[in-house]
Amino acid sequence: MIDWVTISALGTAVATLALASATFSSVRAANRSAKVSELALQAANRPVLTSSRIYDPEDKIRFFEGLWVKVKGSHGYASVTKDTIYFVMSLRNAGHGLAVIDRWSVFVGDITHDGEHLGEIDGYRRTTRDLYIEAGENGLWQGAIRDPKDPDFAKIAETIKKRGLIRLDVMYADQEGGQRTVTRFALSPARKKNDWLVSTARHWRLDGNNPR
Description:
- The chain is of the alpha+beta class.
- It contains 2 helices and 11 strands, in the order αββββββββαβββ.
- Strand 2 and strand 3 form a beta hairpin.
């Protein structure tokens, strides 16, 4: 005799299993699609700072002491007075999103943090004002050390006077404060006093995978 109750229960179990499998596949596909959309949105908003190009026009920027500095494309500025060290770099945003510069760090001498960004981000120097560089555009970064008692003041000042190599780490993010990135730049002495050439060394993404 046919056991219709058993057959009905088996049919229900098979249908439930098929529905669960379809639901799982649908959820997995939706998650995959959402992840792709998220990555595409991040790429569309990601800033990437590099040195500007040698043929880019000259630009100028002012420090609050009243000092005006002019730099050409791919060039920078570094000078030292009795109580202040000044830095300027001509940069370009090669990414697709607005770059909001937040912090920076400077060091001289041999690299002792091979493969790592320099020190902890909390130890970086804050910019005294917000600096923005639009996507696909050029802009200027500026920084200053205004305390002769700063532990790094003497050795950086000496390096500038001797026209040695200077490395600057600049931390920036997108307009939402995400996708934080540290880009390392190098300042090499050019022919004229206080004139330096800017080159891009490495990028580190603090939020996400590195580009290597």
